[in-house]
Fold this protein.
Amino acid sequence: MKKTVISSAFPILSTGLGGLLCVSCTGKDNVKKFPNVLVIIADDLGYGDVSSYGSQTIQTPNIDRLSGEGLRFTQGYSTSATSTPSRYGLMTGMYPWRNKDAKILPGDAPLIIDTHVQTLPKLMQEAGYATAAIGKWHLGLGDGHVDWNTAVSPNPSDIGYEYSYIQAATNDRVPCVFVENGKVDGLDPADPIYVSYRENFDGEPTGKLNPELLKMHPSHGHDMSIVNGISRIGFMKGGKAARWTDETMAEVFVTKAKKFILEHKDQPFFMYFGLHQPHVPRVPNEKFAGKSGMGPRGDAILEADWGVGELLDYLEKLGLTENTLVIFSSDNGPVVDDGYQDQAVELLGDHQPAGPLRGGKYSLFDGGTRVPFIVRWPEEIERGKVSDAVVCQMDLVASLSELTGVPLTQQYDSRNVLNALLGKSPQGRSELVIEGIRNLAYREGDWVLIPPSEGPAYVENTGTDTGRSPEYQLYNLKTDLGQRINLATQESEKVETMKRALDKIADKAFQ
Ligand code: NG6
Ligand code: CA
């Protein structure tokens, strides 16, 4: 069914957009469609991994095309330094640390988003959009007792995605299969699939016991079931025909995305597209293998960039470029060795995955959550500009509510920063709580406060700075982007006021 959104919402739009979209909605000719919205979230792509963010060591021409034709944010954030909480923030508009289950999930975890709340995709559905989730999910599926041989429920459709084609968790976690609308795609009923995060299935090889079967070896962890010659986290058995091949995953997701776009090109669509790169295991297609000179991590970034290019070209081919709002970002900062011997450390050379920022994935320092963040909408956004406004992925809920005129029906942490997202205002959010791993930092203006927290200063094995310290840390990002000069002693009053402000927002965190 072709839906055209007309609009009661346009008076609201005219406020939000300074009249730019204000049309008189009386006659048929004046009916104007909302933009399509395509949100692309890479996995572990750092602030310094993109050439339009200053990388000289890797070229990402397609992501750069978005920067060149749109607005590039220097201070765009995810809520958290790991995937599950970060995606939870994006989808719900809420700080993930308000939900005790929003932490890195195994592949058999139940869905952690309440199916009764107004999520980002539900809001878009209310505005008349066709909605789809394709690629990395990592928000849980089912109720905790999943039988992967039947339809899994609840699934993305219960939080607002009418179509979904996803990997349940990460590419290093079982089950290594695609799930389409809650059903394992390509499953042969004669070869049922079983998944466990507790124990192996009798007679099944593992990376630990059968390293001779591996084409890529773990550096830490990742020594359980073997799929496509790579040992993973967790155990699975059966489902052979449905198992993915890492080398063709990118193509599979891109193909599904194009199909959905084609089917919905005449109505506004909202698509969340979760790239699986450059998360481990990094196993790009042969088209990219060896092309970056940086080993599989660099090659996987080239493949991610290719995927972005495929989607942009397809929008162009269908004449949808002008009225599609594309938002590109990453779920968290970068990591080099995240568990496989893939030469990422050895071949890194001068490349700085987090650019000028300190820390990376898992970190409370900005490298954990300040990520590439680019917005393109040719009809509305001036091309080739850069914005220093502080914006967070979580803000899409309130901002797209403003854009579509669909009212918010609950309290959110999400803020309406639509004018900043469209380059009409330099003003983003004034404050942001940043999540590392089960700990928080607080940004207000240019200042970041990191309260004391117990634990190691470096993530075991990966070597990332965690940002943990027994002392208060206070940094001024304007004068000290790399967070090296701790001003907490000098600026003790600032520490006190920021501490109080953080406590006010987050007094129940992790309870
Ligand atoms: C960690 C994994 C890491 C990665 C991460 C989740 C080990 C030793 N490390 O537990 O490889 O999978 O979880 O990454 O198992 S995320 O980007 O999805 O949050
Ligand atoms: Ca990630």
